[in-house]
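Pilot study result, target chain (285 residues):
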Amino acid sequence: KNEKGDRMLYVVGHKNPDTDSICSAIVLAHFLDAYPARQGDLNPETEFVLRKFGVMEPELITSAEGKEIILVDHSKKSQSLDDLEKGKLVGVIDHHKIGTTTSEPILYYAKPVGSTATVIAELYFKNAMDLIGGKNKELTPDLAGLLLSAIISDTVLFKSPTTTDLDKEMAKKLAEIANMGDIDAFGMEILKAKSVVGKMKPEEIITMDYKDFEFNGKKVGIGQVEVIDVSEVEDKKEEIYKLLEEKLKNEGYDLIVFLITDIMKEGSEALVVGNKEIFEKAFGV
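Predicted structure:
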């Protein structure tokens, strides 16, 4: 507890936070009378969103010690605070598969929808915040704008295969509160803000969204960059490919697949290094 005797309850999203992690933490903290937090710097898209709605960025935390923690937008230990066990994990609000086991019962509320913001919005509109220990306070236009932005970002303006009808329904209701007339036009603004790829170095581009996996004892790397227009990375493609080849050699990968995804055309170009045969067999290309 702090000097005032409040319990130190923090709501925090995953490492390398995206817009859903940041906005969900801010809005959920509002309903729980908690402190919103982040585990890393904001990306340009999230900076744009917080500026647009005039909301302060959450506090940066690196330790769970002395804190009660509610995780949003993740439950995997590897994506969470390194010393999570030094704090007290009291809840998870999420839209991913379950990635943790706990020694005690906790509040766990997750739905297979396009974003965590959708889950929070539904609790609000159903007047059910008390189900997760929150207060049924008012959702102000700025906070509604944050949730709307998070849904747009995570569903890539409803084009992602993870998008559900609930995401669209919540976005519509949130847009009314946030006084956002044209969701599509606003969505393009958000996605364009994300698109700083043109200004980035190839080595930054490949680490933006990159994860390691193990399949049948083989180390596989999968990376992705999303662009509004493929021309943003066209002149960097060769250098990106060279870097991937080096990574494969130096870090013991069997295969690395790097996807350049055109958000508007809804398709991806794949750069493949290493075990190309298996990729060709899988995708028939």
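One observation from the pilot: The chain has a mean pLDDT of 93. A full batch analysis is planned for the follow-on phase.
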